[in-house]
Amino acid sequence: MSGIKSLKLKNLTAFEKLDLKFSPGVNVLIGENGTGKTHLLKVLYTACAITEEKDREKGFGAKLRNVFNPYEGRIGRLARRVDVSSKVSIVVETTDNAILSATFSNHTDRAEKVSVTGEDAWGRNSITGVFIPVKEMLAHAPGFRALYAKREIAFEEVYPDLVDLAFLPKLKGPTDNPRKRLLVELQKAIEGKVVVKGEHFFLQNNQGDLEFSLLAEGIRKLALIWLLIQNGTLQNGSVLFWDEPEAHLNPARLGDVVGIILELQRLGVQVFLSTHNYVLLKEFDLMKKDGDKVSYISLYRETNGSGVTASTSDNYDGIEPNAISDTFGSLYDREIERSVKAFKQ
Questions:
Q1: Which residues are paired to 99 by β-bridges?
Q2: How far is CA 229 from the centre of its chain?
Q3: What are the tens digits of pLDDT across the range 3-27?
Q4: Cα Dmax for the chain
Q5: Cα–Cα distance between 110 and 91 in angstroms, integer?
Q6: How many Å apart are CA 145 and CA 305, to the nearest integer?
Q7: Torsion sign, CA atoms 69, 72, 76, 80
Q8: For residues 17 and 132, what is the distance between their CA atoms, to the nearest angstrom?
Q9: Which of 18, 11, 34, 17 minimizes the C-alpha distance to 83?
Q10: How high does pLDDT run on average in the chain?
Q11: Residue 1 pLDDT > 70, yes or no?
């Protein structure tokens, strides 16, 4: 099955020019606020989404508009803001060498005017993409799909897409042993399993059925992962995009999250995630085993004002720049400095 091999961007949002190659395993995006981490996830997710039947007819341009949700649907607003006219270019390549490209300008007002090439060949191999945003959605699922379908509401399309995937029933046949083991580990972490009644999600445990609205948001996200593994969405050949998995989780739980992500990678799921969290980043360094494929992508702004660029490393010590580690180190230095001053007094 195909995965995503590379991405080239020109003049999209914060990026003047970007050329990235990805790991078939885990890709960890770090960088300061405003360096485009979520935008990268959204572009790649969109490319996966249009290989699915329900989005194939929309096309890449329309799906980009729906996922980014620019003001008045004017896709040209995704162009990098400069004083002159700018042309946006997006090129995505899969591991089996299928290439999808799109171009438009900052003056493009409608998605139908986006020039797309390679779309027919791109759609021949389905790539199931899952985008988990920072805000958990399953607690708000009742009635949401009908509302999104009939009304103009300001939700990016990643939200209804995720709710649709969560409602999929379990695959027929027995669950393979690797997924079964991962489900058991997740059940330990969330202390139960997920059940669906109508459009309501519950965590079923020894206390009974607890509706998602009564659960901590961090637990709901882990429960969502359990559900997507259980119903067969996350399996060999699928791609998971997870925006800030540390959000709303106690740092003590981040080892569970990293362990789950690494296990998914071992099952053949390609993973892209963004993070601002030192503990999460360091857990990958400590928990990674021989054979695990983890790549770190550091996004940063050039000092000459030419936009955001990136550096990549296959090991934690090679991340440069590392805004997360630098900040943690600065806190440690300040604490030592304060302790020394207190001792001298």
A1: 93
A2: 16
A3: 999 999 999 999 999 999 999 999 9
A4: 73
A5: 20
A6: 42
A7: negative
A8: 26
A9: 11
A10: 93
A11: no
Specify the pairing of strand 294-301 against strand 270-274: unpaired
Strand order in the sheet with 193-197: 193-197, 200-205, 208-211
CB atoms within 10 A of CB 313: 16
Report pTM: 0.95
Q: What whole-number distance in Å separates Cα of residue 15 and Cα of residue 88?
A: 10
Edge-to-edge strands, sheet with 87-94: 15-21, 4-12, 87-94, 99-105, 115-117
Task: Tell me the CB-side half-sphere exposure of residue 145, using CA atoms within 13 A.
Answer: 13
What domains can you pick out in the chain, each with its CATH number?
4-128+237-344 (3.40.50.300)
Residue with tokens 């503990």: 279
Chain centre distance of CA 342: 44
Please state the φ and ψ torsions of residue 297, each to the nearest 5 degrees.
Answer: -120, 115
Query: How many Cβ atoms from other residues are within 10 Å of residue 200's Cβ?
Result: 15
What one-letter code names the amino acid at 220?
R
- CA pair distance 43, 29, nearest whole angstrom: 14
Q: Do residues 42 and 69 touch, judged by C-beta distance below 8 A?
A: no
- The residues that bridge with 132 in the sheet, in sequence order, are 242
DSSP, collapsed to helix, strand or coil, labels residue 236 as: coil
pLDDT at res. 171: 84
Whole-angstrom CA distances from 89 to 17, 232, 234, 310 are 9, 34, 30, 17
Is the separation of the CB atoms in 239 and 261 below 8 Å?
Answer: no
* pLDDT tens column, 293-343: 999 999 999 877 678 999 999 999 999 998 888 888 888 888 888 888 888
Which pLDDT score is estimated for 37?
Answer: 97
Kindly give, in sequence order, each residue whose CB lies less than 8 Å from that of residue 237, ignoring residues fewer than 6 positions away.
1, 2, 3, 127, 128, 268, 269
